[in-house]
Protein backbone atom coordinates (compact mmCIF):
# COMPACT_ATOMS: atom_id res chain seq x y z
CA UNK A 1 0.00 0.00 0.00
CA UNK A 2 1.25 3.47 -0.80
CA UNK A 3 2.54 5.21 2.31
CA UNK A 4 0.33 8.27 1.72
CA UNK A 5 -2.75 6.03 2.09
CA UNK A 6 -1.81 4.92 5.60
CA UNK A 7 -3.65 6.58 8.54
CA UNK A 8 -1.81 9.53 10.10
CA UNK A 9 -1.17 9.60 13.82
CA UNK A 10 0.45 11.74 16.47
CA UNK A 11 2.44 10.40 19.39
CA UNK A 12 4.32 11.55 22.42
CA UNK A 13 6.54 9.65 24.82
CA UNK A 14 4.74 8.08 27.74
CA UNK A 15 5.77 7.46 31.32
CA UNK A 16 4.13 4.14 32.11
CA UNK A 17 2.97 1.18 30.12
CA UNK A 18 -0.73 0.33 30.42
CA UNK A 19 -1.83 -3.26 30.84
CA UNK A 20 -3.61 -5.15 28.08
CA UNK A 21 -5.68 -8.31 27.72
CA UNK A 22 -5.49 -10.02 24.34
CA UNK A 23 -7.92 -12.84 23.56
CA UNK A 24 -8.46 -14.80 20.36
CA UNK A 25 -12.05 -16.04 20.06
CA UNK A 26 -11.80 -19.03 17.70
CA UNK A 27 -15.58 -19.35 17.25
CA UNK A 28 -15.89 -15.84 15.82
CA UNK A 29 -12.38 -15.55 14.31
CA UNK A 30 -11.96 -12.36 16.33
CA UNK A 31 -8.92 -11.08 18.21
CA UNK A 32 -9.87 -8.57 20.90
CA UNK A 33 -7.22 -6.31 22.42
CA UNK A 34 -8.48 -4.44 25.47
CA UNK A 35 -6.08 -1.77 26.67
CA UNK A 36 -5.75 -0.57 30.25
CA UNK A 37 -7.66 2.67 29.64
CA UNK A 38 -11.36 2.77 30.35
CA UNK A 39 -13.21 1.99 27.13
CA UNK A 40 -15.34 4.77 25.71
CA UNK A 41 -17.62 3.62 22.90
CA UNK A 42 -18.51 7.08 21.66
CA UNK A 43 -19.13 5.80 18.14
CA UNK A 44 -15.78 7.03 16.92
CA UNK A 45 -13.47 4.35 15.59
CA UNK A 46 -10.89 3.63 12.96
CA UNK A 47 -11.55 0.83 10.53
CA UNK A 48 -8.31 -0.28 8.93
CA UNK A 49 -9.16 -3.30 6.87
CA UNK A 50 -9.52 -6.11 9.39
CA UNK A 51 -8.76 -3.93 12.43
CA UNK A 52 -11.24 -1.71 14.27
CA UNK A 53 -9.76 0.60 16.88
CA UNK A 54 -12.22 2.22 19.27
CA UNK A 55 -11.23 5.68 20.42
CA UNK A 56 -11.77 7.57 23.64
CA UNK A 57 -12.92 11.18 23.97
CA UNK A 58 -9.40 12.46 23.44
CA UNK A 59 -9.16 10.32 20.28
CA UNK A 60 -6.57 7.97 21.77
CA UNK A 61 -6.83 4.25 21.07
CA UNK A 62 -8.45 2.30 23.89
CA UNK A 63 -9.50 -0.96 22.25
CA UNK A 64 -8.89 -2.98 19.07
CA UNK A 65 -10.76 -5.81 17.36
CA UNK A 66 -9.13 -7.79 14.57
CA UNK A 67 -11.26 -10.02 12.35
CA UNK A 68 -9.31 -12.79 10.61
CA UNK A 69 -9.05 -16.52 10.22
CA UNK A 70 -5.89 -18.47 10.95
CA UNK A 71 -5.73 -19.71 7.36
CA UNK A 72 -5.03 -16.10 6.28
CA UNK A 73 -1.97 -15.86 8.49
CA UNK A 74 1.55 -16.77 7.47
CA UNK A 75 3.16 -18.88 10.20
CA UNK A 76 6.56 -17.52 11.23
CA UNK A 77 8.50 -19.61 13.78
CA UNK A 78 10.21 -17.39 16.33
CA UNK A 79 8.13 -14.29 15.54
CA UNK A 80 8.52 -11.86 18.44
CA UNK A 81 7.34 -8.36 19.23
CA UNK A 82 10.01 -5.70 18.70
CA UNK A 83 10.93 -3.50 21.61
CA UNK A 84 9.36 -0.09 21.36
CA UNK A 85 9.52 3.03 23.44
CA UNK A 86 6.53 3.81 25.63
CA UNK A 87 4.24 6.25 23.86
CA UNK A 88 0.73 7.60 23.78
CA UNK A 89 -0.67 7.41 20.25
CA UNK A 90 -3.45 9.70 19.08
CA UNK A 91 -5.32 9.43 15.79
CA UNK A 92 -6.34 12.95 14.72
CA UNK A 93 -9.12 11.75 12.41
CA UNK A 94 -12.30 10.37 13.97
CA UNK A 95 -12.89 7.85 11.21
CA UNK A 96 -10.48 6.43 8.67
CA UNK A 97 -10.92 3.69 6.13
CA UNK A 98 -8.00 1.92 4.51
CA UNK A 99 -8.25 -0.87 1.97
CA UNK A 100 -8.10 -4.39 3.31
CA UNK A 101 -4.56 -5.12 2.16
CA UNK A 102 -2.78 -6.02 5.36
CA UNK A 103 -0.48 -8.99 5.69
CA UNK A 104 -0.83 -11.15 8.80
CA UNK A 105 2.04 -13.07 10.36
CA UNK A 106 1.56 -15.28 13.41
CA UNK A 107 3.98 -17.18 15.64
CA UNK A 108 3.73 -20.96 15.25
CA UNK A 109 2.05 -21.27 18.67
CA UNK A 110 -0.34 -18.35 17.89
CA UNK A 111 0.94 -16.29 20.83
CA UNK A 112 2.22 -13.34 18.74
CA UNK A 113 0.66 -11.65 15.71
CA UNK A 114 1.89 -8.93 13.37
CA UNK A 115 -0.48 -7.12 11.00
CA UNK A 116 1.18 -4.75 8.59
CA UNK A 117 -0.03 -2.53 5.79
CA UNK A 118 3.33 -1.54 4.32
CA UNK A 119 6.40 -3.74 4.14
CA UNK A 120 9.08 -1.20 4.98
CA UNK A 121 12.73 -1.66 5.94
CA UNK A 122 13.35 -1.59 9.71
CA UNK A 123 15.30 1.68 9.45
CA UNK A 124 12.13 3.41 8.18
CA UNK A 125 9.95 2.38 11.14
CA UNK A 126 9.53 3.46 14.74
CA UNK A 127 8.11 0.97 17.23
CA UNK A 128 5.77 2.52 19.80
CA UNK A 129 4.70 0.48 22.80
CA UNK A 130 1.18 1.68 23.62
CA UNK A 131 0.48 -1.05 26.20
CA UNK A 132 2.08 -4.19 27.50
CA UNK A 133 2.29 -6.59 24.51
CA UNK A 134 0.92 -4.03 22.02
CA UNK A 135 3.40 -2.28 19.70
CA UNK A 136 2.50 -0.04 16.79
CA UNK A 137 4.73 0.32 13.71
CA UNK A 138 4.94 3.97 12.66
CA UNK A 139 6.53 5.31 9.46
CA UNK A 140 9.05 8.14 9.58
CA UNK A 141 6.28 10.49 8.41
CA UNK A 142 3.96 9.48 11.31
CA UNK A 143 1.62 6.98 9.64
CA UNK A 144 0.33 3.67 10.99
CA UNK A 145 2.21 0.87 9.21
CA UNK A 146 1.39 -2.10 11.42
CA UNK A 147 0.34 -3.52 14.77
CA UNK A 148 2.02 -6.19 16.91
CA UNK A 149 0.19 -8.05 19.67
CA UNK A 150 1.56 -10.70 22.00
CA UNK A 151 0.66 -13.06 24.82
CA UNK A 152 -2.56 -13.93 23.01
CA UNK A 153 -4.95 -16.05 25.08
CA UNK A 154 -6.86 -18.70 23.12
CA UNK A 155 -10.58 -19.20 23.85
How is the topology of this model organized?
Layout: E1 10-13, E2 20-25, E3 30-35, E4 45-48, E5 51-55, E6 61-67, E7 74-75, E8 85-90, E9 97-98, E10 103-106, E11 112-116, E12 125-131, E13 134-139, E14 144-150, E15 153-154
Parallel strand pairs: 2-15, 4-9, 7-10, 8-12
Antiparallel strand pairs: 1-8, 2-3, 3-6, 4-5, 5-6, 10-11, 11-14, 12-13, 13-14
Query: What oligomeric state do these chains adopt?
Result: single chain
Quickly count the domains. 1
Biggest beta sheet attributes: 8 strands, mixed
Radius of gyration: 14 Å
Globally, the shape reads globular
Count of DSSP E strands?
15
Q: What structural category arises from helix and sheet content?
A: mainly beta
- Encode the helix/strand succession as letters: EEEEEEEEEEEEEEE
Helix residue percentage: under 10%
Compute the number of helices. 0
Fraction of residues in β-strands: over 45%
Strand order of the largest sheet: 1-8-12-13-14-11-10-7
CA-CA gap between termini? 32 Å
What does this structure look like?
The protein is mainly beta and 155 residues long. It has one domain. It has strands at 10-13, 20-25, 30-35, 45-48, 51-55, 61-67, 74-75, 85-90, 97-98, 103-106, 112-116, 125-131, 134-139, 144-150, 153-154. The protein is globular. It starts with 9 loop residues before the first strand and ends with a strand. The mean pLDDT is 83.
Give descriptors for this structure.
seven-stranded mixed sheet; single chain; 0% helix; 47% strand; eight-stranded mixed sheet; 15 strands; 155 residues; mainly beta
